[in-house]
Amino acid sequence: MEIRMLIAEFDESWEEFDTDLRMHRGFNEAAYKRCCAALSQLAVELKSENSVPKELAMTFVDLVSAIEGCRDIYKGSLDEKIFQAMDELGDLARSCCVVVEKGP
To answer: Which of 15, 49, 57, 93 has the most CB atoms lying inside 10 A of its own CB?
Structure first.
């Protein structure tokens, strides 16, 4: 799939996941899985690129803190699940930013 399409899929699923957490609608498992899938595919596609598209990088900057800010809303009930999601999405975002050195 094209990088732009993957970014659009990630953005859409991230917005849905993040909004549901912030609006006290709970942990949207389907949106979370779509985020993970899009980021996994992006990591593969971006390995051959020299940079991460700006719109994606801007989302990555706030990704972990946005999720962490919602943990207090769900103290006890979903706290650990949200923490694990934060950790996994952070890892996937970092994997999109790996620069593969190209030989001379």
So the answer is: 93
